[in-house]
Design brief:
The chain has helices at about 10-15, 15-30, 75-80, 90-95, 100-105, 155-160, 220-230, 260-265, 270-285, and strands at about 1-10, 30-40, 40-45, 50-55, 65-70, 85, 115-120, 135-140, 145-150, 165-170, 180-185, 190-195, 210-215, 235-245, 250-255. The chain is α+β, with helices and mostly antiparallel strands and about 290 residues long. It folds into three domains: about 1-95, Rossmann fold, CATH 3.40.50; about 100-110 and about 175-275, 2-Layer Sandwich (D-amino Acid Aminotransferase, Chain A, domain 1), CATH 3.30.470; about 115-170, Dna Ligase, domain 1. The longest helix is centred in the last third of the chain and has 16 residues, at about 270-285. The chain starts with a strand and ends with a helix. One of its GO terms (molecular function) is ATP binding.
């Protein structure tokens, strides 16, 4: 039986215990053996000039595959270097865990998006980079955190003090505030889409108190998502779009370590059954 690791930080593993158990159950159904490994247990790096992975400071038998559920592209890369099939790949993790890189990459596909500036915290000035209102996002932020809606000079200067990461993006706000579409993708398949809305926050994230409803994609919207899917080699991701005032979708971001609470809330789709089946087919292809 092919052995795999699912890697979480300790805090995220605690918060996602039911999801991890579901994942392990679905891998068993595919005749795969999945074990939870905490990131805090791992010592990864270069020992005696060789890529090395230790678990609790000991050499262990390495898995055939790893599902990395912590945003750390270098970890994905090192696992790949040691011959492990990694989901998502280090390429996907590197780009999709950095909002500026994601926008730059997706812009090559002529996908519409809001105007976006790439900035460094150390280069920000009290003079705002564009006219109010605008949104500031830390490039490596997740889950709607480290996102600031700026209406005036006081908020801008306050935001400059709160930003923790050096890389930020700054975006125009000519969209329907508090609404977005998340599209769940496994491999080259669109599994489903949800409309996320919030009446109390400019961010539509479900975990921040937003609501979710099933969203039926039009053929044009499906074609746009296929363009993105065909450009990357995704395992499982969420592709997020904002909505302009005419109802058109504008690319927003790609979630590498995507959860599926909203999809489970609005449908009976078993995305982890699809994902574990996809993982099995990928590792079978590697060893055939």
């Amino acid at each position: 039986m092919n052995k795999g690791w699912i890697i979480y930080s300790e805090q995220d593993a605690y918060e996602n215990k039911a999801y991890i158990n579901w994942f392990i159950h679905e891998t068993k159904e595919q005749n795969l053996d999945l074990t939870l490994i905490l990131r805090e247990q791992l010592q990864v790096g270069l020992l005696q000039n060789q890529p090395t992975i230790l678990v609790d400071h000991s050499m262990v038998e390495l898995p055939v595959f790893a599902v990395v559920r912590t945003p750390e592209p270098l970890l994905n890369l090192l696992l790949e270097e040691m011959g492990i099939a990694v989901f998502n790949s280090s390429h996907v993790a590197r780009i999709c865990n950095h909002k500026a890189l994601t926008h730059f990459e997706v812009s090559k596909l002529q996908i519409p998006m809001v105007d976006t500036l790439f900035m460094k915290k150390i280069n920000l000035r009290t003079t705002p980079p564009m006219s109010f209102p605008f949104v500031v996002k830390e490039a490596t932020g997740r889950g709607g955190k480290q996102v600031f809606f700026i209406n005036n000079q006081i908020q801008w200067e306050d935001c400059m003090n709160q930003i923790q990461s050096n890389d930020v993006i700054i975006q125009t706000t000519n969209v329907q505030i508090g609404k977005d579409i998340r599209i769940f993708v496994v491999g080259k398949e669109i599994v489903g889409a949800v409309l996320r809305e919030s009446n109390s926050d400019f961010r539509a994230n479900y975990k921040l108190g937003g609501t979710a409803t099933w969203f039926e994609l039009s053929s044009n919207q499906i074609n746009m998502v296929h363009k993105i899917m065909n450009h990357f080699d995704f395992g499982m991701v969420g592709i997020d779009f904002l909505i302009d005032h005419d109802g058109n979708l504008l690319f927003n971001e790609i979630e590498d370590v995507v959860g599926s609470r909203t999809l489970s809330a609005v449908s009976d789709l078993n995305i982890l059954q699809k994902y574990t089946s996809y993982i099995k087919s990928k590792i079978s292809g590697m060893h055939s």
